[in-house]
Amino acid sequence: MVVVGSLNVDLVVGLDRMPDPGETVFGTSLARHPGGKGLNQAVAAARLGAQVAMVGAVGSDDGGTWLRSLVEDEGISPTTIAIDAGTSGTAVIEVDDRGMNRIVVIPGANDSLTGDQVTTALDAISDVAVVLAQHEVPMASVGAALRIGRERGAVTILNPAPARAIPDEILRLVDILVPNEHEAALLTDLPTDTLEQAMVAVASLVQRGPRIVVMTRGSQGAIWGSTTETGSVSAFPVHAIDTVAAGDAFCGGLAMALAEGLPIDRALTWAAAAGALATTTAGAVPSLPLRRDVAALIGE
Ligand code: ADP
Q: What pLDDT was estimated at residue 300?
């Protein structure tokens, strides 16, 4: 399977309080973490046992070298990750002692990924049972990924995060659209607070072209629909301490299970279990669960 998406360096700055404009304050800590929805979802699928290739772009800087080596450490070939002349995608995350944060994202190399680069990279990959993309690279690259995925008979999955308008011709290339409640609300202009509202929003998205729409609903699990069927998957009861990357674990789990040929209801069980376990550990990549732990949770 292939993940087409972003790779970021997350720089987390701890400080007692946020500076006012023009003011300098001393920070209390500095940490560097891997991030980006593309990288998170690729690592999620690889830890669950999938053979993953990653298509994306990093900068010609230290961060880019570091991101490629991290990906390789997870068993994901970095050869289809382009090296752009600029900086790697970087998020500067300031967290004060009350836990409030401010985040500046520099898309950097992620924004330079072209449709042609995606096409060339995908042509070099033999296993494209599933193509999984998100919204942190240009829409032209997402479109190219889905189009080639379709041509090669892959299952195409789009996680439309962060929320942004999607042309209908792109939605028609999607087999499984996986928004969370907020993204679904923004895409449809409909409320998604109650189960009934969520089901209406799913049905409305299905009308626009995806074969299946799966809406994740945090601790309420997920619901899905197609033109002929609807279904749901309950959330696994866990002690959640940090929901960062739950959606990424869910998408990676879904892609891995579909690449193994599981039907949608079984694949969603793997996805929900991976999402649940990701909430039991702090951080993004450190929280992504291993196959044996997800298998144990679902009783396999
Ligand atoms: P996102 O991170 O994109 O907002 P969600 O918060 O909807 O995504 O989480 C994705 C999936 O992870 C959910 O559909 C659910 O299956 C699982 N999940 C998330 N939060 C919890 C939780 N507190 N307990 C159990 N499962 C959860």
A: 87
